[in-house]
Amino acid sequence: MAREYDTARLVRKECISEQTQCFHFEFVLEGRQDFLFTPGQFVSFVANDADGKEQTRAYSIASAPRGNRFDLCINRVGAGFFSNHLIDLAAGDKVRMHGPYGYFTLREPITDSILIATGTGIAPMRGFVQWLFPADGTDRSEGKDIWLVEGTRHAGDLYYREEFETLAARKPNFHYLPTLSRAEESWPGLRGYVQEHVARIVEERAARLGQPLPVPPLDPATPRDAMRFDIHAYICGLNNMVSAVRERLVRFGWHRRQIVFERYD
């Protein structure tokens, strides 16, 4: 069966970090009323390079579904064809794409959740957060605690910081924890790597609920469909960060099915 392609037209582009040359994009799909996807999925863009060779690159969607529109969050990569191709687009320019794809999605039913991201790994997390706490005032979080731990080196590279801070001020069960590994002296917030703060969340939650750590292991005979957890972690970023967070959670006795991750290197 031949693959079906869509045409995405760039509506808006904004540089959200000069230092890392990170851009926020808003696209509309031409000829479609709706673009149905699950938050956390990705799309594949297709274009020909300077030699006429067709190139394909996958990008996580940085928004929840809203009609025929979707957002992306992309860093310029020095020698990377596709990131430069997209960042050099102007409003009104078009690009071919197909999708959505992927299984980096929120598990149902919604549980307490720790969302952990570095760099443009924040893209699917923004989609999760927008879906859980829509702008229309509805709330799909079911009162569960949702922590978003966003890590980077410098404060200027905390993508969508103002958006998350505004939501945290409005929703008491949404907790935004930005942390810097190379913080300036004036930075008033958290310092260090994301895995350190994830560990603190897990420890403090277990103490509050009177739960033991490490978590007692599941009965090996438990069928996959019968496995139930009261908290999940969702991790997106470079491999070293993903591995470090997974190792911390495994030490707490977490089951691998509680830890959902996506690497982009």
Molecular structure report:
It is a single chain. The protein is of the alpha/beta class and 265 residues long. The chain folds into two domains: 6-101, Elongation Factor Tu (Ef-tu), domain 3; 112-263, Rossmann fold. The chain is 22% helix and 32% strand. The chain has five helices and twelve strands. It has helices at 81-87, 122-132, 161-170, 194-209, 239-251, and strands at 6-17, 22-29, 42-48, 54-60, 69-75, 94-101, 112-118, 146-152, 174-180, 190-191, 231-237, 259-263. The strands form two sheets. A six-stranded antiparallel β-sheet has the order 4-3-6-1-2-5. The protein has a six-stranded parallel β-sheet with strand order 10-9-8-7-11-12, with helices on both faces. Helix 5 links the parallel strand 11 and strand 12 (259-263). The chain is globular and about 60 Å long.
Count of distinct strands: 12
The H/E string reads EEEEEHEEHEHEEHEHE
**Strand coverage percent:** 25-35%
CATH superfamily of the largest domain: Nucleotide-binding domain of ferredoxin-NADP reductase (FNR) module
Distance between the termini: 30 Å
Characterize the overall form. globular
So how many helices? 5
Please tell me how large the radius of gyration is.
19 Å
Which CATH-level-2 architecture of the largest domain?
3-Layer(aba) Sandwich
The name of the CATH topology of the largest domain is: Rossmann fold
Level-1 CATH class name of the largest domain: Alpha Beta
Rounded average pLDDT: 95
